[in-house]
């Protein structure tokens, strides 16, 4: 569309939010901060705009997007709330919880956004910039994480810029600083009375269970959250998980957690062993270690409780062999002469 502005990065203000809202309504793309990660947003009722998200992300079209709304009332125009959905929405919205609900058959959502499913993943973000954008746009915003499909999600505007250097169809990046939660939302299927965890994330399962227990963990291999591919969130160099610092290999850097960890060639997710701090640091540190000269990233074990579940889920996917790779193959440096001990 020719009346859309050329690619630019802006600070949030009344004027820029108004412009970003106009751009979304006119079919453009806006990257914006949420409390979890940066989203790549389009008007969720506009098929062509949503299709351009899939194009620039290089995302498979069978993988549906999360629809962001400003409140429960706007959500109720799109999906059918049952009792369980209502309970969880009241308890956790706005916030890092996405609920998968039945789509309203006469609702306005683009079928491309939901990959033709009869369910929709919906959330109300808590970040003030996301909220201001939803108000300004006055349409539901479909937004996956603002990274190329398969790579690490962005937690800073700079990460978005690095992935979409000259825009590639993106019109505006709203720079709202670092995302405080740092991992994506928790996704719960609430289409029945039994809450099913499709993706651990920014709201701990324990918190959800305190409101609606018990949560069933979806560990079937038929992918209910189609984007939950085995290899995802992956740096370009190999990642090994549950590694004792004594077993660091030559050329590897370590991602550590807690006190008394080695400091050489290492970044510590949280020196005090705080899982919230670790989640907020995870993607930024994975990116920082993903650089030429480093042969791989070895990660110490992370406790599998609270936000530790989301961290371990992302690390397992970061460590999974990518298509065409063999599990357990020796690490390849992404710099052919990067055989340096750091
Ligand atoms: O924190 C977040 O959730 C971020 C921010 C931007 O809101 N968004 C995000 O979106 O992580 P994305 O597209 O990277 O991940 C969305 C996940 C995918 O795994 C997708 O398959 C799943 O949600 N999903 C979307 N609609 C679904 C549905 N109807 N049923 C099951 N899973 C669904
Ligand atoms: Mg994503």
Written account of the structure:
By secondary structure, the chain is of the alpha/beta class. The chain contains nine helices and 16 strands. Strands 1, 2, 3, 4, 5, 6, 7, 8, 9, 10, 11 and 12 form a twelve-stranded mixed beta sheet that branches. It has a four-stranded parallel beta sheet with strand order 13-16-14-15. It starts with 7 loop residues before the first strand and ends in a 23-residue tail after the last helix. The model is unreliable at 327-342 (pLDDT under 50). Threonylcarbamoyladenylate (TXA) is lined by residues 34, 36-37, 39, 63-66, 98, 100, 114, 117, 119-121, 143-145, 184-185, 187, 198-199, 224-228.
Task: Pick out its properties.
alpha/beta; Rossmann fold; 4-stranded parallel sheet; disordered C terminus; binds threonylcarbamoyladenylate; binds magnesium ion
């Amino acid at each position: 569309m020719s009346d859309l502005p050329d690619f630019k990065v802006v600070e949030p203000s009344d004027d820029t939010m108004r412009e970003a809202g106009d751009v979304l309504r006119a079919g453009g793309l806006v990257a914006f901060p949420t409390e979890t990660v940066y989203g790549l947003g389009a008007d969720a009722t506009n098929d062509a705009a949503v299709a351009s998200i899939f194009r620039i992300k290089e995302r498979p079209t069978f993988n549906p997007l999360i629809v962001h709304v400003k409140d429960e009332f706007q959500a109720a125009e799109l999906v059918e709330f049952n009792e369980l959905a209502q309970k969880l929405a009241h308890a956790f919205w706005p916030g890092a919880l996405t609920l998968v609900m039945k789509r309203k058959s006469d609702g306005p959502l683009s079928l491309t956004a939901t990959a033709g499913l009869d369910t929709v993943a919906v959330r109300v973000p808590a970040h003030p910039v996301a909220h201001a954008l939803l108000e300004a746009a006055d349409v539901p915003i479909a937004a996956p994480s603002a990274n190329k499909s398969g790579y690490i999600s962005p937690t800073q505007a700079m990460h978005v810029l690095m992935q979409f250097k000259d825009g590639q169809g993106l019109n505006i990046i709203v720079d709202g600083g670092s995302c405080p939660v740092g991992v994506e939302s928790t996704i719960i299927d609430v289409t029945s009375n039994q809450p099913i965890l499709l993706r651990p994330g920014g709201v701990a399962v324990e918190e959800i269970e305190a409101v609606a227990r018990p949560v069933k963990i979806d560990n079937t291999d038929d992918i209910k959250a189609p984007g939950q591919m085995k290899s995802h969130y992956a740096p370009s160099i190999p990642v090994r998980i549950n590694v004792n610092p004594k077993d660091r290999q030559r050329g590897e850097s370590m991602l550590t957690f807690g006190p008394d960890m080695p400091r050489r060639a290492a970044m510590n997710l949280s020196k005090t062993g705080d899982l919230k701090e670790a989640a907020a640091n995870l993607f930024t540190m994975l990116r920082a270690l993903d650089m030429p000269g480093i042969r791989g990233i070895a990660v110490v074990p992370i406790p599998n409780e609270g936000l530790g579940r989301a961290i371990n889920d992302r690390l397992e996917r970061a460590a999974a062999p990518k298509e065409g790779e063999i599990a357990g193959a020796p690490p390849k440096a992404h710099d052919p002469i990067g055989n340096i001990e750091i």
